[in-house]
Amino acid sequence: MSSTAEEDAMSSPLLGTSATSSPPPDTSATSSPPRVSVPDATSIYASVADEAARVVSEISGLPESRGPLRRLCGDLIRRVRLLSPLLDEIRDGGGDGFPDLVDCLDSVHDALVCARDVLRSVNDGSKIHQAYRREAILSEFTRVNEQMEKVLSEFPYKELPMSEEVHEQVELVQLQFQRAIGKIDSPDVLLIHDLAAVWVQNDKQTDPTILKRISEKLQLKSLDDMKKESVALHELVISSGGDPDDRLEEMSSLLRKLKDFVVTENPVAETSTTSKSGSVKHRSPVIPDEFRCPISLELMQDPVIVSTGQTYERSCIQKWLDAGHKTCPKTQQNLTHTALTPNFILKSLISQWCESNGIEPPKPKPPSRDKKPGKHTSSSDCDWTGINSIMTRLESGTQEEQRSAAGELRLLAKRNANNRVCIAEAGAIPLLVKLLSSPDLRTQEHTVTALLNLSIYENNKAIIVESGAIPKIVQVLKTGSMEARENAAATLFSLSVVDQNKVAIGEAGAIPPLIDLLCQGSPRGKKDAATAIFNLCIFQGNKIRAVKAGIVSHLMGFLGDPTGGMIDEALAILAILASNQDGKIAVSQAEPVPYLVEVMKTGSPRNKENAAAILWSVCAGDMGLAQAMKDMGATEVLKELAENGSDRAKRKAGSLLELIQQLDVQIGEDESSVVT
Q: What stretches pass through the bilayer (predicted)?
């Protein structure tokens, strides 16, 4: 398994570290300060230029890129190579007399490191993911091009004593980076169409012509290519904590279909054993090397990944670890931890290969824990061996093993309903609830998201609540990372579907932190918070809590910001709050009439309906607000809504029109009394 995000961040070259950096000298045993020789300027220039040149060399030595981004990678590598003469001249003394040159070279070095990291991520990454998320990855190339153009524009190469050819070449490279920034790479329309067609035909036989085009454009043409792609896609899942992309199901489906297509186009060679007379006695397909365990050399039934990224059969590597070994059998590298991560994608590929070749797919072992499969599942529905291994690490592992185990459960629970049942029956929910209090933020994120995914299965909701989860989820909502807070809000919404849980969640103090997330969260976080608040406020006591926490002013702010994307949610919550007396007073005091009349004029049918409902609640007992509504020209739009709106909208609009008529009658009577 790849290193965690936290570990990656600590070693990232973007933070200014590199593999060649020297540790600080150990002076603890010296009796006097060491004598230090001061290098001259030329040696400093040469040293920094040499570091930059080394990165250029690394980039130049990268293998030719494959997949949908190969042209972008090739262009970037070509431009970077053209900087070699500049760095060579500086290393040869072409920077004498320019005191700011070191800082400029440092900036060039940092930009080159960014370029190298982007190129490596594309080379090593999933080609299928790159095809689906092309726009997001293109932004990374744009960022690199902008950074390179900026450092070159600030580099004093024209003032350096170098040949005109070098000056012209650097100027050309800068111009190329400048053009690359403004150039929009046209999408491959046919590839986009083919990807969509594969998903639309998900349960049907996909046209082989389409699969062939995709296979060629992504350069996934052989079984070896498919192995690398499956590992890359799995690494993406693991590195993101099990939740990398909302299109993971599409990507996995495409991977399966491409693999079947590749096997069909390039059938696996068969070996035969013959009798002494030469007649064929038996034919069987050759097991691909990537499907064999490196220890037993047998077809893997339960492939797992160790910390070095190598995959083994679970039982074989577990025996190796149980014998006290701390190294990877294949690479001899030290294992940073002993957690075993299921390689679900490779397992799926093995099963498909078995089916294609008439071999019975490997069967998971029955559960070994006290928990037995319930009526909704059977022992063959779940990977009990894998779940039991995860449970062991979750219950008694180190902090890192618990983090990894929670991440695996998060991914398993997201995959299908059977997993949600099996994980609960294995006794994972109380252990996950306990981990909600972990000081490790990433563990918190995995844990609360695993509980969110488990709560989708109705019977698990009661187990989660009975395990004491609600107060701890509220605490995560208050103090966790943004991702943890967002998923905590979504979990509370899922649990609040049960009416009695609405009361418990409100009493646990969830409303104020939900309002904080509503105001400060990401767009997705705001939506999660709004949904949870709306559902909780079906209970009258929570309406009062929300009003006292000051939610109305924030909701009115959303109504005043049409670009914020929260008008739908604000209107829905205001409509339910206004049905309560305290909420009605708070909404009335917020001067909502101008916003609500504007929504009735220009909003969606549902928003017009909610706006009319809120207006009726606040205007029915306040003729001043009714007059304001009339003055803003609400009469015509109410007539239109009374004729063409939903049943609820028609009722509310009709009541408001009657209110305006009463207002007109009252005004007429007042004027008559004045004349008299």
A: none
